[in-house]
Amino acid sequence: MFFPDSRLMIAGNPKAAGTTLRWWLLEAHGIDVSAATRHSWWGESAPFQTVWDEGVQLRYIWPQLTEEERRNALEAPDVLTVLPIRNPITRLFSAWSGKYLANESYYEERLPDDFARLPPIIDSEDDITECFEAFVRSLASVVDVGGWESIDVHLWPQHLLLSRKPEGQTLELRQEAMADGLDAIGRHLASHGVGAGTAPRINETIIPYQQRLVGTSALASIVDMYAADFDRWSYERALPAGSSRDIDLDWLNDVRGRNSRYGVLHRALMHQSRERERLRKALDTANRRESELIESTSWKVTGPLRWVSDRARK
Fold first, then answer.
1. Residues paired with residue 8 on neighbouring β-strands, in sequence order
2. What is the mean predicted confidence (pLDDT) over 6-10?
3. How far is CA 283 from CA 272, 276, 289, 292, in A?
4. Closest Cα partner for 128 from 205, 223, 49, 236?
5. Burial level of 5, CB count in 10 A (0-12/13-18/19+)?
6. What secondary structure letter does DSSP report for 236?
7. Could you give the CA distance from residue 122 to residue 42 in angstroms, rounded to a whole number?
8. Which pairs count as long-range contacts for 147-151, CB under 8 Å and 24+ apart, including other chains?
9. Which of 2, 50, 134, 262 has the fewest other C-beta atoms within 10 Å?
């Protein structure tokens, strides 16, 4: 996402406060995000919170920018590029617990068929630990065979997502200590006449990361899979401190049930959307071919013959 007027670009990094930051920056630039994304079908349990859906035509999102604006974002020396990053351990756990554990249909459908599946009900913290370990084993196996391209981008290493090196200044915004970074963004916006307003509060997942929920084998696999991220941003290869918030299994199972029911509706809507798009393209092709035929020389030359044929039938 690039804001040409305020000379700020924010790189995409799922599960590193990316959605929260985008929402904040869009509203700072005068975009009513709630209104613009109300009908998004991107697949979140709360679809109106999706701020990267190309279909809603939000200004400043990378696919909506011109080629000149994209070059400007990457090559102009006065652009501040924000790189949201996060500890690989907490990031993977958050992607799993906030998306897969919560039964969000968009993400569930993007797992290979032989991926470790979840039980209908989560009964204990031990269930959480065992399910996460099974998930990490499956992830390691899939990546080993098909590479990161075979899995959803929420699980990709951050160094792959943040591989571009823009010409201007970069700000590494670590989710573990965001206050100073957010202040720096606010000062940059203010220097370009944009009032950022109150800095965002980062959303909590239903099941927060806690050290006791990550087993030894899961930790070893994460360190191995995300070694380049640990090296690039100097994260320790050990479990970081976690949240002290109590785990509410009733809340988790309630959300999982609601997301499963929503998933049925979502899949039906997406099927209708894809079918409507297919029919629209087929109609456009048919109309184009009809226009080409009518404008063709052969059609014009044979016009008198068609007139005689019509008269004869009548």
1. 3, 80
2. 95
3. 16, 10, 10, 14
4. 205
5. exposed
6. -
7. 26
8. 150/112, 151/110, 151/111
9. 134
